[in-house]
Write a structure and sequence with these properties.
With 151 residues, the protein is α/β, with parallel strands linked by helices. The chain has helices at 2-6, 8-22, 36-48, 103-114; strands spanning 29-33, 51-57, 65-72, 75-82, 91-99, 118-128, 142-148. 30% of the residues are buried.
Length: 151
Amino acid sequence: MTSILEDADGLHLAIDLLQEKLDGLDFDIIVGPESRGFIFGMPLAYNLHKSFVPIRKKGKLPCETVSVEYELEYGSAEIEIHKRSIKPGDKVVIVDDLMATGGTSAAMIRLIESLGGKVNGLVFLMELEGLKGREKLEGYHVDSVIRYPGK
């Protein structure tokens, strides 16, 4: 990711291609996880005049939150979102840099849906297809700009 961020043309292309992946999706809010979801989600929210909502590691958000714990390959993690950020009926897309096993994305979906939001899509800059993350996201619209077949 750093190579893309450090290259002005690469960054511009990444944002443009992610934005193309959002065409046709019905949504009000872009959600991005800490930290690279912030980097890629914010310019998209700005360009499309949508709200941006961060999801962060536990203990980083200042207002009342809801959280979810989930399993990683090497342990567990907990993420949270401001309780006020998603309201029942809000249509949401999740934007992130990388989809690997899909565990973090599945946890984000649980958080959003626990507040009454509807996840209408997940868009990633890169996907590691060999880790089969899409299997955890079955039933959701998932798209990625770059797909690597390996792990």
